[in-house]
Write a structure and sequence with these properties.
Layout lengths: L1 E5 L3 H13 L3 E5 L7 H5 L3 E3 L2 H6 L3 E4 L6 H11 L6 E4 L6 H8 L4 E6 L9 E9 L2 H12 L2 E5 L5 H28 L4 H19 L6 H7 L6 H11 L2 H12 L3
Parallel strand pairs: 1-2, 1-4, 2-3, 4-5, 5-6, 7-8
Antiparallel strand pairs: 6-7
Helix pairs in contact: 4-5, 7-8, 7-11
This protein binds NADP nicotinamide-adenine-dinucleotide phosphate.
Length: 256
């Protein structure tokens, strides 16, 4: 597949890097300023500052500019390039499908894909919304993002909640890391050691949930001996409002 990425910033750059690393697609990267393109050229991409040239040669176009620039980029592309047989994937947050359809006009298949920053480590939780796409195209886009982490197909109404859980969620998980690291220092570890311990413990906890049918509470039970130290720790955390704080944070960060 020929894939063109419009916008070589954090998100577009991460997607381009992942695709170039995989090496199974022909990748073109287009960006407004030339400076950001050099590293993608060195990695084997065709690079350009001409979005229309990038789009013309692609089967799939990824729009990775800031949300307020999507209208201009999309209308410009579809005015100058025949996109009827192409697929356009927007990764812009807070851009409604209805708007994408309007800006892209008749023809191209349209999807929204919302990754999180862990895409740079091929560990994204990416939500796919088939705005105007058939099943085969949706499957194809999903398979593409599956190579950069995990994907979940959702409807547009769930995007704000998904963003709170997975995009803001990166910050929340890392805030736990900071808190646990500070606790680790108080318990006698150096900060770097404590962070490494906490990070690996989180990887371990996540891996325990990767098993079919796994449940967080069942895994917690396994380390919670009656009258033991884990339950004392858990109860002290709950007394300080742990679960309540997390839920309140998620509700507060759900975009309106
Ligand atoms: N970062 C995240 O965690 C994240 C997560 C999910 C979704 N997203 C979405 O991803 C999109 C991009 O975010 P980002 O963080 O990657 O932003 P960014 O780092 O600012 O990247 C945007 C890129 O688009 C380029 N650009 C601007 N106008 C252009 C145009 N007309 N034609 C071609 N390229 C153009 C910019 O080039 P110049 O620098 O030369 O202006 C810049 O390199 C946003 O819509 C955001 O909502 C981001």
């Amino acid at each position: 597949m020929k894939i063109s990425i419009i916008g070589a910033g954090n998100m577009g750059g991460a997607i381009a890097e992942a695709l170039l690393h995989k090496g199974t697609h022909q990748v073109t990267v287009s960006n407004r300023s030339e400076g950001k393109l050099q590293r993608f050229a060195q990695a084997g991409a065709d690079v350009t500052t001409d979005n229309c040239r990038a789009a013309a040669q692609a089967d799939l176009i990824v729009i990775a500019v800031k949300p307020w620039l999507v209208e201009q980029v999309l209308t410009d592309l579809t005015a100058h390039v025949d996109c009827r047989e192409k697929t356009i994937v927007s990764v812009a947050a807070a851009t409604r499908g209805e708007q994408l359809c309007q800006w892209a006009g008749q023809g191209p298949q349209l999807l929204t894909a919302i990754p999180n920053t862990a895409i740079t480590r091929l560990a994204s939780m990416t939500f796919i919304v088939p705005v105007r796409a058939d099943e085969a195209t949706t499957r194809c886009v999903r398979e593409l993002f599956d190579t950069m982490g995990q994907t979940m197909l959702i409807d547009e109404a769930h995007l704000p909640a998904a963003t709170a859980l997975a995009s803001c969620g990166i910050a929340y998980a890392l805030r736990y890391v900071r808190a646990a690291t500070e606790g680790g220092v108080q318990l006698g570890f150096r900060a770097a050691e404590a962070q490494a311990i906490v990070a690996q413990t989180l990887r371990g906890a996540a891996a325990l949930l990767d098993v079919e049918g796994a449940h967080a509470e069942a895994e917690i039970d396994k380390v919670t001996t009656p009258g033991g130290i884990t339950i004392r720790g858990l109860n002290a955390m709950e007394q300080a409002g742990f679960t309540h704080a997390v839920i309140q944070g998620l509700l507060a960060s759900r975009p309106q």
